[in-house]
Amino acid sequence: MLRLENLVKRYKTGDQALKGVNLEIPKGQVLALIGPSGAGKSTLIRCINRLVEPTAGAVYLNDVNVAAVGAGELRRLRRRMGMIFQEYALVERLTVMENVLSGRLGYVGFWRSWFRKFPPDDVAEAFRLLDRVGLMHMADKRADELSGGQRQRVGIARALIQNPELLLVDEPTASLDPKTSRQIMRLVCELCTERGLAAIINIHDVMLAQMFGQRIVGLQLGEIVYDGPPNGLTSDVLTTIYGEEDWEATIDKVEEEEEEETTTAEAVLGADR
Ligand SMILES: Nc1ncnc2c1ncn2[C@@H]1O[C@H](COP(=O)(O)OP(=O)(O)OP(=O)(O)O)[C@@H](O)[C@H]1O
User: Fold this and answer.
1) Tens digit of pLDDT for each residue in 216-230?
2) Pocket residues for ligand 1 (CB within 6 Å)?
3) What is the tally of structural domains in the chain?
4) Which of 16, 21, 41 most suits a substitution to test ligand 1, by most atoms within 8 Å of the C-beta?
5) Is the predicted ipTM greater than 0.95, yes or no?
6) Is the same domain home to 12 and 29?
7) Where's the ABC transporter domain (predicted)?
């Protein structure tokens, strides 16, 4: 459903952040994008919805080249791509509900949204989503009264109310503690499964990428240096992506964590029976 062809981004400063990236993502696939700082992960994600303008190449979303369309068509295409940000990008003085509904702005006319006249179906869907992300009781709270994890849940609900086919997720857990990070990653992945959404998740944490990604793409200096399954991230591959480091400890930790996750899941299932 998404195909990047020879995607190049050269910033005005001369930095070549993407050097001809080719990537194809089928419907429903959750892809974790990893790589060292400056590898081009954020640039790649932002070139897909043209928050950053690609210098060359194509971005096909269901065979329409996003990189080549005019402003009106781009607005329509962006509705199909929900975005989740590291710093949540909420409007602090608005309520949780208003922030979620702002995800419908691409559909509802400006004046209508300005006067906060969202259609009842949108409001009903916003309540359903808030319930799904565990924030129903916080609908009327102001965004600036929430914790980081709660803010990210609002960000997720706002992206989903667009009814997208693709989620672009830019370091969703960078400002969160380890436990909250896992909860957020689990929630994003569950929602992708429930809704058949594809996702590209730019994530710094290799362990989280391996635990939650179905496919891992490793970027280095604007080029893909690994594209494969999570269990293919051997210490040699990690050295290719990030450079020399003692990777065995990270790999052992992932295996331990996965065992722990399975045991917890079994315990929960057992308790339910
Ligand atoms: N607005 C910009 N103007 C000029 N150069 C930029 C700009 N944004 C990014 N770059 C450069 O492009 C390259 C890729 O940056 P990008 O932010 O995409 O990497 P990243 O992998 O997301 O890094 P990080 O993990 O640190 O966020 C870097 O060399 C960076 O300095």
Assistant:
1) 999 999 999 999 999
2) 11, 13, 15, 17, 35, 37-43
3) 2
4) 41
5) yes
6) yes
7) 2-246
